[in-house]
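Session log. Operator J.P. requested a structure for one protein chain; no other inputs attached. Running the standard single-chain path with token output.
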Amino acid sequence: MKKVLIAVLGLIILVVVVLGVLVFVSPTDFKVQRDIIVDKPRSEVFDYVKMLKNQAEWGPWIKKDPKIRLSSSGTDGQVGYISRWESENDEVGYGEQEIKKLVDG
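Structure written below.
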């Protein structure tokens, strides 16, 4: 019986040591990358993306909170335009984004 307990204890110690070594030698950084091909002319995509109100069509925040309160100031698609949002949903929260610079194309 004593030999079995020593074998089990030795096996547990071996597993702990192996896991400890793996923790120290395994990479700590990882990267997730996704690609999508947009089959549209570059100018058409740029004209769509620069309009912050278009985010309502594809942005995940509005899907998370249909009761989100949106407001804005300025001219959408132009430098200085500010889009604001407020939500009771903690995942959405509140904030604003401003177009600071546009580089055509």
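Operator note: Helices lie at 2-25, 42-49, 55-58, 60-64.
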